[in-house]
Amino acid sequence: MNAGILVTGAAGFIGQALVRQLAAGDEPVFGLDIRAATQPVPGVRYEKADIRDRALVGLVARLKPRVVVHLASVVAAGGDAEQDYAIDVIGTGHVVEACLAAGVTRLVVTSSGAAYGYHADNAQPLTETDPLRGNEDFPYSRHKRLVENLLAEARAAHPALEQVVFRPCTVLGPGVSNQITAIFERPVVIGLAGSAAPFSLVSETDVVAALARAAAPASLPGIYNLAGDGTLSLAEIAGRIGKPYLPLPPALLRGVLWFANRLKLTPLGPAQVNFLQYRPVLANDRLKTGFGYVPALSAAEAFDRYWRARPAS
């Protein structure tokens, strides 16, 4: 009989926190990653594996977990598109195949709000029934959409493998450093003229708590946006941290990114302007009423907690 919880991406920011929380429970915990965990949790069995390698199928079959929580994915835009595709799409395909081969009964996956795409006509807020339109010219967004298509096909073909799919918004917590937080760190917060650019935000503690709940036998399968209540615009964020806000014309920023990308000064290109201009705002009603998890921190509270935890400059 299958037993235990396997976490892919166990050495990542969310993965390490989730493994630590799960290890306090009664089930065996397996941590799988291509990297070694910087702070291994006593009692957790760690395995080094690359989800891009189909050998993953045999490894999971030997461990026979009850649940797989799939966190191994690309978390930043603007990388190597082919490598990112291999990790996100091919890797997730291997995870699904491994679950089916090992008799896993539940698969928990972190997708992304980026799967909805960055479009001027996006609903505000977006609900789980809105179409997934991950932008073709934005690999990060396109790959998240393709991952969800793959998961939908697996749900139709293999209903015995329950799925809990989370679509997180921007995740903030102490120590987080990425392309989003880089916007806040500059002396001037740069936004886009004519766009409020509201950010849905969620605390990493709420992400970990929701994932741990999803791994429990009694939780409900389904698809859930994962976001704290409310939003913050870049102008509001600038005000909270006492920095000037500079809205640039979108055409100007596209030109700057095109030029900088040609000079290999940044991996980002003009298409990434949509990333700021048309932020997906996520409704969390289904998370609270359908899944039964109410985020502890609002968007504003998650941001303030992240900002207070930064090292003094």
UniProtKB/TrEMBL annotation:
It comes from the Bacteria. It holds the Pfam family Epimerase. SUPFAM superfamilies: NAD(P)-binding Rossmann-fold domains. InterPro entries: Epimerase_deHydtase, Lipid_A_modif_metabolic_enz, NAD(P)-bd_dom_sf. Residues 5-186 form the NAD-dependent epimerase/dehydratase domain. PANTHER family: BIFUNCTIONAL POLYMYXIN RESISTANCE PROTEIN ARNA, NAD-DEPENDENT EPIMERASE_DEHYDRATASE. This is NAD-dependent epimerase/dehydratase family protein.
